[in-house]
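Exercise 7.
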Amino acid sequence: MNMSSGLEFTNYDIGDRIDAWSASNEHSRIYFDAVNVFELAVNQPLEIPPGSRFRYRNSDPLTLGRIVRDKVEARGESYLAFPQEALFDRIGARNFVLETDAWGNFIMTGYDYGSARDWARFGLLHLWDGEFAGERVLSEDWVDFVRTPAPGDPTQGYGGLFWLNRGGAMDRVPRDAFWASGYMGQMTMVIPSADMVVVRLGPSPGGSQDYMNDVIGEVLDSIDSP
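Solution. The predicted structure, written as tokens, is:
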């Protein structure tokens, strides 16, 4: 969950290298190749010691996904129904669609779609420390864990599958903010100190972090204004 498994999983930036579109770019094969995403992730050799370095790699959340599937099916429950029953139904989210590969594995590093209201519900669940409408949905230590900086990230910009502002990368956003980030800057940001959740589903021009820094900064300034 800290993106620090140490698995060898090549990730070339699509915008920088022509070989980013080749089979050697394992990170992008998840999206563009017909592969069993869980098998590709878990069958990689160890490259560096686990927990020693933060690296954004699809292998890590997909390895977690493999563990989830094994655990759910070992209990005799439906893996495909699990996200809806265990999470979405309990927070009133009705529009989430999680796509799978051809082997029925949720591709939890992308292809996950929801309405703005449903993403807001997801954000509120974390703002409210894992409770929703008086019901505990997440464990009591979950939110603290996801917003704690990964040991392998000296910038304090990543926690447990959430991005963080602990290092102050967004200078107009409170440092306790943490967020789920999607393709082209889609974002669900939780700001506990402002009692606020911000959802953006459109692409962010000029880079999502700089753009959202200004957008959220303006919102916070307007709230503080008389």
